[in-house]
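Continuing the batch. This is chain 6 of the set; chains 1 through 5 are on the previous pages. Same settings as before, nothing changed between runs. Recording input and output for traceability.
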Amino acid sequence: MHSSSPCRTPQRRSVRRSGAPGFSLIELMVVLGIVVVLALIALPGVPDKMIRDRIVESVKLADIVKPKVADAWSATGKLPVDNAAAGLPVADKIVNEYISAVAIESGAIQVTFGNRANVAIQGKVLSLRPGVIEDARIVPVSWVCGNAEPPNKMVVKGLNKTDVPVRFLPLNCRGGAAASAPP
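Output for chain 6:
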């Protein structure tokens, strides 16, 4: 005869078996720490790339000015001195979300960043200068962005007023040693 007490219930053991699926809290914390370190390494380059991408996107506004300059060169061998000479509106009327003015100065296109541009480039200028072959006006104008070098046998016209920090310039707008530097 068993004398068992009716109040007694069997106890369950909550011991984790060695082959049970899942991760311990320490394993999860190590993985999280690694992800955070990798993110911190990559993060400083992200804002620079975003600014560079916006510059590339917004400078397309200058495409409405380029044909006017190129046409003047091929027709007369001279470059327009300003927007009025090219038959364009005043500089502060050629704008978009990130550009506050597009001005022609002796053939060069001076793009001024403003409006909603990142504070790091507000008020900064990016120059697009015409590269030409002086004794062959039939050759199309090649546009030289910022500090970049002109194509071989071409002469660049106009003043380079680029003052956008090099780290924000698209690769095709950097000059010489700066072009080979990491972004």
